[in-house]
Amino acid sequence: MLELKNVSKAFGDNQVLQDASLTVRDGETTVILGPSGSGKSTLLRFMNLLEFPETGSLSINDDAVTFGGRLTDAQIRSVRKHSAMVFQGYNLFPNQTVVDNVSLPPVLNGKLSKAQARERAQEVLDRVGMGDRLDEYPDNLSGGQQQRVAIARALAVDPDYLLFDEPTSALDPELAADVTRVMVDLASEGRSLVVVTHNIEFARQVAKRVIFLADGSVGFDGTPEEFFASDSERIQRYLSTYG
Ligand code: ADP
Ligand code: MG
């Protein structure tokens, strides 16, 4: 289980999140929805400590940190090891081949030997349909292919939670569909996914849980059925804009 409790964050005068709390359960897909600027990325980045809240706490499985004071590197590592992030812009290393992009992280974090990592890279790249492009450089791939490599890279470290920040927003619909298919496969295998997206259909069909952010806090936390049936004015307004 992943739990953020009472997290707050301001950027200057902009109070982005105020006392937000949420729980992500294992083995299911949690989708985070909300208008642009509502703090979805910030919240997701808290889970991997790419961003630090000013207050509150984060616990993932048996590891926990409390925010507000200084965290040690060991504390940060203990929490970070549980998850891997997939970004909207793929963020592959352009000067590394596909197989290096995927196999180096588990070697660098000490999880696998070079030979094991190479084998694992082949396996996860096969899973995302990129197993025949090992020696390619990212620039020679389409956006959808790069994003599938980025998913393989996240899978290579075998994280408890896969965190996706608008993974298909930069892609043409056809290429986005390839990426979405990979995510649907992972969800159906019972992996724990946390997905920030504007893809309402994905939320409707794949999510077990929908979290809706608005005005600095969690405005809804429940099943997709409940979410789409909600008569909340804020949710209705969101759905008429993004749905
Ligand atoms: P979302 O992902 O829902 O669009 P974000 O979490 O990216 O929202 O951002 C929430 C708000 O915080 C926005 O107003 C954004 O401009 C602001 N923000 C995010 N990151 C920073 C930052 N590093 N510095 C200043 N403002 C930021
Ligand atoms: Mg965002």
TrEMBL record:
SMART domains: AAA (SM00382). It comes from the Bacteria. GO terms for cellular component: plasma membrane. One of its GO terms (molecular function) is ATP binding. Pfam families: ABC_tran (PF00005). Residues 2-240 form the ABC transporter domain. Keywords: Amino-acid transport, ATP-binding, Cell membrane, Membrane, Nucleotide-binding, Transport. It is found in: Cell membrane. It is a peripheral membrane protein. Belongs to the ABC transporter superfamily. This is Amino acid ABC transporter ATP-binding protein. It comes from Kocuria soli.
